[in-house]
Design brief:
The chain is 66% helix and 3% strand. With 252 residues, it is mainly α. The chain has two domains: 3-73, Arc Repressor Mutant, subunit A (Orthogonal Bundle); 92-248, Up-down Bundle (Four Helix Bundle (Hemerythrin (Met), subunit A)). A two-stranded antiparallel ribbon has the order 1-2. The longest helix has 25 residues, at 92-116. It is globular, with a radius of gyration of 19 Å.
């Protein structure tokens, strides 16, 4: 990973650990809603960092979430469900593990999306693609609008599975990776032709789902996430993954 990404990840790693430690110490009372400004004052971190840290440790063993209310300190600290928080949190090994999990989960989700997608899902994916393309044409491929459109594209794919578990797991993974993805997007935007390549990767996924081609949908998503990891200098997957992803040759 680049030094800039390393610095961002290390800072988030330290911040998340501070947040968890304060919860363990009782500075943040269990069961209470956690407004970011109040947490910021208590733990000595700026509001934006607290928000990112909450997203990174939003797991049942530390932080819960209530719709229309917000996050709260969980009353249970023993892991009772899936969690990616560990002593390796935020380092290269941890990121590689997250990207690998994301690759296998999202490629399978793309298959299911190709089967279950509706016209509404297709419309949402196309809207996200159009925003990404417009931002590239405007010379702003790393804009907030483009990043949000990217996230919305993947959310539309997850929703198209019509499977609640896929939807929740993909959202969880993207929240854990968001700061890294954003930093990588800013860096890759400076490299000639990379934004256009990223757009084509998304377009290939879109085309396969529209055509209900489950094999190409899987391969296109797999290649996209392999390339995303590679752009962060992370080697993930196996030689078979790289070969399998070549199903999309000629489409990307």
């Amino acid at each position: 990973m680049s030094e800039k990404i390393n610095r961002s990840v290390r800072f988030l790693q330290r911040s998340a650990k501070i947040l968890v430690q304060r919860m363990r110490e009782g500075s943040l009372k269990l069961g209470e809603i956690l407004p970011t400004k109040k947490i910021s004052d208590k733990v000595g971190l700026i509001v934006s960092v607290v928000s990112e840290s909450i997203s990174s440790v939003k797991i049942s063993s530390f932080i819960g979430s209530k719709q229309d209310i917000g996050e709260y300190a969980s009353k249970k600290f023993e892991p009772v469900s899936f969690s990616t928080y560990s002593d390796d949190f935020g380092n290269e090994k941890h990121l590689r593990s997250l990207f690998e999990l994301r690759m296998y989960i999202e490629s399978s989700a793309s298959e299911l999306a190709a089967v279950n997608r509706t016209n509404n899902h297709v419309r949402r994916m196309k809207e996200a693609l159009d925003i990404m393309e417009n931002e590239i044409n405007a010379g702003s491929p790393d804009s907030e609008s483009s990043i949000i459109a990217d996230i919305n594209f993947h959310k539309a794919v997850a929703d198209a599975t019509n499977n609640f578990c896929f939807q929740q797991l993909i959202q969880f993974l993207n929240e854990n990776l968001r700061i890294t993805i954003e930093t990588g997007r800013v860096n890759s935007a400076k490299i000639k032709n990379v934004p256009e390549k990223v757009l084509k990767e998304h377009a290939c996924i879109y085309k396969a789902i529209v055509n209900k081609n489950i094999i190409v949908a899987n391969s296109a998503m797999r290649r996209h996430i392999l390339n995303s990891a590679s752009r962060l200098n992370l080697n993930i997957g196996t030689a078979d993954d790289n070969c399998y992803s070549k199903v999309t040759d000629g489409l990307v």
